[in-house]
Amino acid sequence: MNPASGLVVVGAQWGDEGKGKLVDLYAAEADAVVRYQGGTNAGHTLVVDGRKTVLHLIPSGILHPGKRCVIGSGCVVDPVALAAEMDELAAAGVTVDPTRLLVSFAAPVILEVHKRLDHAREASAGAAKIGTTGRGIGPAYEDAVSRAAVRMGDLAAPERLRRRVEALLFEKNALLRAHGRPEVTPDEIIAALEPVRERLLPFLGDAGASLAALNADGGRILFEGAQGALLDVWHGTYPFVTSSSTVAGNAAVGAGVGPQLVTDVLGVTKAYATRVGSGPFTTELDDEVGALLRRVGREFGATTGRPRRCGWLDLPALRYAIRINGITRLAVTKLDVLRGIDPVRVCTHHAWRGQPYAVMPGVSDAWPESTPVYESLPGFTEDISAARTPADLPANARRLLAFIEAAVERPIELVSVGPGREENVRFAARTDGAP
Ligand code: IMP
């Protein structure tokens, strides 16, 4: 990273691309790491010295001593889950104190009632359910934009907190009744917050001001995206999306800084594709290859434990993610998982009524009619987990990476070949003037 630069790391698929590992890696060169959207729906898995840590809300920079971690106003914060995550980190020997973590006082709060409503809606929707993580994300963001949310700063003012909770429950209880669920009382909501309320107050502050000051001093900011491009509420496979904007353009908004602080965008994609929850996924595999990817890639949700749907890499979808995010370079994760699969297939375009179809299926009403068209590439059988330079990779693995680069016109700068922090192949920076 350059001095005073701001790199955004975004998921270029449906989340679970391995952003946490990339953020942990790039955090070594940053001064601050900021989460700008989402909440505890995220599950960022980090493996350092063989020890696994799964973070849901605290930025993935927390494992680097001395890096400032910030939870921006664009996140929805579950105070009880945040305190529990701090406890888990403490048990793993990582101290999270106010010198390390700042939480925006403007971030909307996820309350118990949001989680209940999330579950109630999914149960009522039956087969049409979104497949949410059940963490109350949608209902919490709804309250933010309907100007009814409790925000983190309200934890410091108990009377205001009670007024806000009472006002909120007037409508929320009507919704719970509509779904045949019991109502909740303000006392229940406030009692759930009470054990952590005082504890969290020292962490609250002005996230945007802190980041702007750091940038003014030449500090480098890493913006940590959660979920992925195709789960973006505006640009994803709506309605099967999350309730926040996951794209890089939202990094400045959610962090509370000007867009000039974002100077580069790294997109993370797996060498294949996964999706958890409902919604279109045209390259999904229901066969033994899909089962193999799930087993070898350990494709089970980091937050919910649900098995992930698995399929081939979708290049039109990746091009779409590149466009809506402004991705300049790529990291490809889990290349090792493709070992032994022959051929490896990659979707190059989609056919619709017999014609090549340029628009990303799933963001158009026409998606059910399109069919993926694949290129078959020869696979590799070698164990690549010890590869650290491009020359260590088998020729067929290099060919696959070159094929992806050429198809999406972006350089791949890092390839992950295992879950560990050091299990990566780094590519030299391109000198041919590519973007
Ligand atoms: P919600 O964000 O819990 O409302 O879930 C909405 C959709 O986004 C569901 O399909 C979830 O499975 C998906 N989703 C939310 N967060 C993540 C994530 O971190 N990784 C992968 N999928 C996610």
Quick recap:
This protein is an alpha/beta fold and 435 residues long.
Architecture per CATH nomenclature, i.e. the level-2 architecture of the largest domain:
3-Layer(aba) Sandwich
Termini, distance in Å? Answer: 16 Å
Sum up the overall morphology in one term: globular
Poorly predicted runs are: 431-435
Ligands, deduplicated: inosinic acid
Q: Order of strands in the sheet with the most strands?
A: 7-6-5-2-8-1-9-13-17-18
Largest sheet: 10 strands, mixed
Order of helices and strands: EHEEEEHEHHHHEHEHEEHEEHEEEEHEE
CATH topology of the largest domain: Adenylosuccinate Synthetase, Chain A, domain 1
SS-derived structural category: alpha/beta
The CATH superfamily title of the largest domain: Adenylosuccinate Synthetase, subunit A, domain 1
Kindly provide the radius of gyration, computed on alpha-carbon positions and rounded to a whole number of angstroms: 22 Å
How is this structure best described in words?
- The chain is an alpha/beta fold and 435 residues long.
- It folds into three domains: 6-105 and 203-264, 3-Layer(aba) Sandwich (Adenylosuccinate Synthetase, Chain A, domain 1), CATH 3.40.440.10; 112-200, Adenylosuccinate Synthetase, subunit A, domain 2, CATH 1.10.300; 269-426, Adenylosuccinate Synthetase, subunit A, domain 3 (Adenylosuccinate Synthetase, Chain A, domain 3), CATH 3.90.170.10.
- It is 30% helix and 19% strand.
- It contains eleven helices and 18 strands.
- It has helices spanning 19-27, 79-91, 112-125, 137-145, 158-178, 186-200, 207-216, 249-255, 288-296, 315-325, 395-408; strands spanning 6-11, 32-35, 44-48, 51-55, 68-71, 101-104, 204-205, 221-224, 264-270, 273-275, 309-311, 313-314, 329-333, 344-352, 355-357, 371-377, 412-416, 424-426.
- The chain has a ten-stranded mixed sheet with strand order 7-6-5-2-8-1-9-13-17-18, sandwiched between helices. Strands 12, 14, 15 and 16 form a four-stranded mixed sheet that branches. A two-stranded antiparallel ribbon has the order 3-4.
- The longest helix has 21 residues, at 158-178.
- The structure holds inosinic acid (IMP).
